[in-house]
Structures are given as structure tokens and as C-alpha cells.
Amino acid sequence: MPATPAPAVTHRPDERFDEFLLAAAETHPDHPAVVEYADGAERVTTFRGLREAAERYAAELDRYGLDVGERVMIVSDTSAEAVALVLACSSRGLPFVPVSPETPAERRETIERSAEPALCLFADGEPGTAVGHGRFGPDGIEVPLPPVRRERRRRAVTPGDTAYIIFTSGTTGRPKGVVMSHRSVVAFYRGMIAEGFVSVGDRVGSTSPLQFDFSLLDIGMALGSGAAVAPVPRALLRWPTRFLKVLRVTRATHVNGVPSIWRQSLRHIPDQLAALTELRGVLFCGEEFPLGELRHLQRLRPGVRLINCYGATESMAASFAEVPDPLPDEVTHLSIGNGHRGTDILLLDPEGAPVREEGVVGEMYLRSPALMTGYWGDAGATDAVLVADPLEPRSGQRLLRTGDLAFRGADGALRFCGRRDSQVQIRGNRVEPAEVQRRLLAHPDVREAAVVVYEGPAGDAELSAFVVLGDGPAGTAESDLRAFCLRSMPAYMAPSVVRIVGSLPVNHHGKTDHRRLRAQLVTDAA
Ligand code: HFR
């Protein structure tokens, strides 16, 4: 891609997001970079085609006279056009802010007010009449009311500049913008690619929305390895036969996504899942894979590598752990391994001292070159999680305090076991709702379970469980499940209410939506 004006600083050319991802355009220009599913057939964009599309977009962006650091919001799913646009923004030092088209307008506007993008480009739909709003697509960029051109002091893009900002739900309810530099993303990509999950010729099915950083992992893993990314249209993900058809048509060799993308296929069309002979790897992230479903997947497709990716938007993935095949019966917690190359995961007790004993829970802190720069416009929140290294306080390094809890297994690898901040006090006792959930999932008739905390009639915290039963003979009652909990845990840990439901709500990332479950309790109580 043409360079920006004479660099004041030199850097390795492959430290920029777009340069790193387009390296294969030099070595394998005719290999597929993006394989889309369109009308029952595949549509291939080669690395050369992708680079040309990115160059076209970059030239168009230049018309708007934007300066390095000005944001471009992209309202789109993953597609060849969206990948090209994202690369174009990066080449010009314009941080992209990906927003899923599924995002409710009100939330999108909140993000827009915070990110203050110079341009807000939509792949589909009506962009509206606001200044800077427009469309992008094969015909280019069209912005009916362009932003006012200001005098700009354009400088070269450096690796410390921001590549993207991803807004995640903050605990306060206001979206928090996670700011990632080119250097951090590329450091993450290098560490991940060193694990050797995919290689030239592979096709990585991508199921996460563009605003969930797992989609950027998919793009990085694929393009950075000279392989292709194969976006699964989000609308088809809900239909197991269509989902599997997309995988067949695009000849996906790997699929990345949250665990729930497999649920419907496991339940309704296991034979078709078993027939996906080209599938060699499944990467999952974001929450624990319910072990029953995971074992089912292993039985259907033995030999497929299952990789548990652990991380948060603030760090991208911090570790990758391959699930043993088959998973031994006695395993109750999946390993998340140890940090991937370049990343240390420290397990610390509340005083900041290392936890060394097997089975003792501590909080995970990350020492990594792939951490966020900080939260967008929120120094206070940044300082709360990017903290001085408790083990090397004089090193000047900052670690990411994840808020995630884990313990070490006999093999020295970590087991995720919930979050510090979801920990609650029930009648003065410390309870981790995830542990109660795990107990419910151990019941033979339970397929899915979620445990939420709410304020009970007496004004104190109580637990409520939502349970989806499996296909076995019906007859398990809510009271049986409560009794099942009481058999193995103290009374304060057993949920005061267990509800059997048809399905659990999921958020736009596909994870169980605890917020909606809590809202449900409030509505029901009223
Ligand atoms: C996360 C974070 C993961 C892998 C995360 C690769 C990339 C990015 C990610 C995805 C995510 N087992 N619990 C697990 N960024 Br690239 O989910 N990000 S998040 O910010 O929305 O949520 C939290 O999800 C973590 O702090 C954990 O609590 C939980 N989590 N991975 C796992 C997990 C269990 N593998």
C-alpha cells in the first residue's frame, strides 16, 4: 500500500496491522484471502484482490482529509469489503471502530457520541443524514454530507498508533472503548500464529460479529498464515442446516466462535455435523464450552482439534489450550493452558503474592506485549486495570488485571473458574455463581444452566437458576434440581429458585445474557 508522507520514525514495515495482514499478497497473491458465501456458492477474493480493494478504499479515504488518529466507525458484518476497508483505515492511521449491524440504534449512537468518528460507514441500510455518515461497498465510499475539511498535520503512522477501538459492555452499563495499538495486535497475531493452528490453503470459518475481537482473531489467524477467512453470514448462524451448508460450500477447515454456535447442530443434525469431513479444527472462546456438548462434538468428529482460547478484549487471547481427545470422564474444568508465546499469566492472591499450590484459586494478571493502550477517554478505569507489576514493581511494566479467577491443575496448567466481580456474598458467605452452574450441569437431565444473583424479597442477595433440560425422558422437576444442589453444597449456595426454561437468552456475541435473565426476574417479581 502506498506509504504516507516521509516517515519521521522508522519501524519494521510488518508492525502495522494492514501490512502484517497483507504480507501474503506479495508471496501468494493468487491464494484466496476471503471466501464468502453468496447464494449457495462461494465467492473468492484473492490476496491480490483484497490488497487492490484496500488501496481503492484508502485513496477514497484520502479525499476526506482525515488526520492520523481520527476514527472511522464501520457498521458491518465481516465481508471482503469490510476487511478491505479496515485495512485501508489502518494504512492511513485511522482507527476503525467496528459496530455490528445488529446493534440497536440507541447503543450505536451512544458509541458514536463517545468515539466521535469523523466518518461512520454502513455496509447496508440507510445511513441517515448526519454529517460524516455514508455507505461503503463495491462502488466505493459515498458520504452525502462529508465532514468539514480541516487543516491537517498528517504524519507517518507508527506502531504505537491506534489500530482500532472496540466498545464492550462496561459494568456501569456505559460501553467502554478498548483502545488497541498496531503494535499490540501484531504482537498478538505473531504469538498466535506461532502456535501453528492453520497454514496456507486452509479456510477459517468466522462466526463472530466484527465488533467482537474474536473476529479480528479469525482475520489475523487466516490472513497472517496465508490462509483464507470464510465469514459465516450472521443471519444463517441460527439455522443449523444453513450454518453447516455454509461450512460445506466455503470448505471451511477450521471454525472459530463462541461455544453456542454448535448447540443447535449437535441437538438436531448431529449426522450432518459428523459428515463435515473437511473440518480439522474448532477454536472457541468467550465462555466455557459445556462439557456434555464438547464430548458430544468429540464423539461425532474424533480427531478434530478443539482449541480453548482464553482472553478478553483488553488483551485479545492470552492463552490457547488444546482439549484432550477424548476428554477424560473425570475432567470437570477445561484447561486454558498457560499464556501463549510472549504472554505470562500470573496467578496472584488478594495480597498480590503468587499462588503456587495446585487447586488454590487466584486472580489472573497478564504480562503481555498485546495489551490494550487503555480505555477510550477513561484514565480512571484504565488505571484500575493496567496496574504496576506486583512481582516486579520496579520494572515499570504494567500488567492487565483481568478480574478472572483460575486455579492450577496437577499438570501446572490453569483452569478458569469464574470472575472476581461476579462473586457474591449470600448470607455472608462467598459464592461464585459459576460453581453453582457447574453443579447443575452435572445433573444428567440438564443441558444448559445459568445462575444469576438478584435481590430477594427480604432485600438480600439470592441466587436464581435457569435451566434447560435435555431431550431425555421428561419428569425432572424444579424441586429435584434444588435438592440435587443441596446434596453437594451448603444451603446458602443452592439457588432459592430454579426455573426450567426452553432456552437461555444470548447476547449479540452469542454468550449467555445474564443481564436479560436478571431483568426477567425483576419483571416476574413485579
Ligand atoms: C473468555 C472476556 C478470546 C480469544 C476474547 C481470542 C480473542 C479474544 C478473546 C473474547 C471475549 N473460557 N471464560 C474461556 N476477547 Br482475539 O470473550 N472477550 S470479552 O471481553 O467479551 O469477555 C471474558 O470472557 C473473560 O474475562 C472471561 O471471563 C471470559 N472468557 N474466554 C474464556 C472465558 C472461559 N476460554
Characteristic terms for this protein:
526 residues, binds ligand HFR, GMP Synthetase, Chain A, domain 3, six-stranded antiparallel beta sheet
Describe this structure in words.
- There is one protein chain.
- The chain is an alpha/beta fold and 526 residues long.
- Among the domains are: 17-257, ANL, N-terminal domain (Rossmann fold, 3-Layer(aba) Sandwich); 423-525, 2-Layer Sandwich (GMP Synthetase, Chain A, domain 3).
- Helices cover 27% and strands 27% of the residues.
- The chain contains 15 helices and 27 strands.
- The strands form seven sheets. A six-stranded mixed β-sheet has the order 11-10-12-13-14-15, with helices on one face.
- The longest helix is centred in the N-terminal third of the chain and has 16 residues, at 47-62.
- It is globular and about 70 Å long.
- It starts with 16 loop residues before the first helix and ends with a helix.
- Ligand HFR binds at residues 168, 213-214, 217, 285-288, 308-313, 316-317, 336, 402, 404, 416, 419.
